[in-house]
Design goal:
five-stranded mixed barrel; 9 strands; 265 residues; purine-nucleoside phosphorylase activity; alpha/beta; Rossmann fold
Length: 265
C-alpha cells in the first residue's frame, strides 16, 4: 500500500468510512472552526508523513465529523513553502483527502490587501491567482498529469455558493486575484506596487500550491482570504506575524458565518 492509502485506512478506522463532503484547510488564526466540528480530532503527530504545522496560530490536527449537517475534514494547519523550500509540502494531506473520497476543497488564509478598496477585517473570495513565488508543487511529478489546466482553478459553482451564502449573511465578499509570494519575509513597498500593476488584489504566502495540487488530484477548489493588513507602504500600520494573528479573528467571525451558511445549503 502507498503512504496515503495507509493513512486513509488509519483515519477511517478512527473516524468512520463515510467520505467527507468537503475538505477545509484553515489559515492563521482560523483554527477555532475545527473545534465546532462534532467528530474525531487526529493530531498530525499520529499521521506519519504529515507535515507539522510550524507556524503559530495554526492547530496541527485533522478533524473529521459533522458541521452544519455536512461531513467535513478540517485541516487545522498547513505547511508552507517557506518552512522547507518544498512547494509540495501539502501533497500527502491532499492525497489523503482525495483518498477519503472528498471532491471539494475550501481553503482559507490571511492576506495583505493590495487593492485599497479592501480593508483589514474584511474578506476576499479568490477569483484567480498569480503564482509570483516562481515555483510549482508539481515540479518533479513524472506523469503527464502534471500538465494541469488552471483555467477554472477556482471553481465557479463553489464561488457562486459562497457568494450566495455571504449575501444571505449580510457579509461583503468581494472577489479578487491573490498573489502568492514565497515568504517568510513580508513584501517590500516596491513589491506591493509591482503586485498592483500585475493585477493582484491581495497577497499571501500560501494557498496557491494547494490549489494546484488539488486540481492535480481532481478536487474542485475555492478559497477565501481574511484581510489582516494593508500591503507595505499603503498605510502606517506595522506589519508582523503578531499583527496578523491579532487581526485574523476580526474577519474569521464573518468567514465562519459564510462557511456555515454555505454548508447548510
Amino acid at each position: 500500500m502507498s503512504k496515503s492509502a495507509d493513512l486513509v485506512a488509519l483515519i477511517r478506522e478512527r473516524a468512520g468510512e463515510a467520505a467527507p463532503d468537503y475538505g477545509l484547510i484553515l489559515g492563521s488564526g482560523l483554527g477555532h472552526l475545527s473545534q465546532a466540528v462534532a467528530g474525531v480530532a487526529i493530531p498530525y503527530d499520529d499521521l506519519p508523513g504529515f507535515p507539522h504545522a510550524g507556524v503559530s496560530g495554526h492547530v496541527p490536527q485533522l478533524v473529521i465529523g459533522e458541521l452544519e449537517g455536512r461531513r467535513v475534514a478540517v485541516f487545522g494547519g498547513r505547511s508552507h513553502y517557506y518552512e522547507s523550500g518544498r512547494a509540495d509540502a501539502m501533497r500527502l494531506p491532499l492525497e489523503v483527502l482525495a483518498g477519503l473520497g472528498a471532491e471539494r476543497l475550501i481553503l482559507t488564509n490571511a492576506a495583505g490587501a493590495v487593492n485599497a478598496d479592501l480593508a483589514p477585517g474584511g474578506l476576499m473570495l479568490l477569483s484567480d491567482h498569480i503564482a509570483f513565488a516562481g515555483t510549482n508543487p508539481l515540479i518533479g511529478e513524472a506523469t503527464d498529469g502534471r500538465f494541469v489546466p488552471m483555467t477554472e482553478a477556482h471553481d465557479p459553482e463553489m464561488r457562486a455558493a459562497l457568494k450566495g451564502a455571504a449575501a444571505a449573511e449580510g457579509v461583503e465578499l468581494p472577489e479578487g486575484v491573490y498573489g502568492w509570494f514565497s515568504g517568510p519575509s513580508f513584501e517590500t513597498p516596491a513589491e506591493i506596487r509591482a503586485a498592483r500593476v500585475l493585477g493582484m488584489d491581495a497577497v499571501g504566502m500560501s494557498t496557491v500550491p494547494e490549489i494546484i495540487l488539488g486540481r492535480f488530484l481532481g478536487l474542485r477548489c475555492a478559497a477565501i482570504s481574511v484581510i489582516t493588513n494593508m500591503g507595505a507602504g499603503m498605510s502606517d500600520e506595522s506589519i508582523s506575524h503578531d499583527h496578523t494573528k491579532q487581526m485574523a479573528p476580526l474577519g474569521a467571525e464573518k468567514l465562519e458565518r459564510v462557511l456555515r451558511r454555505m454548508l447548510r445549503g
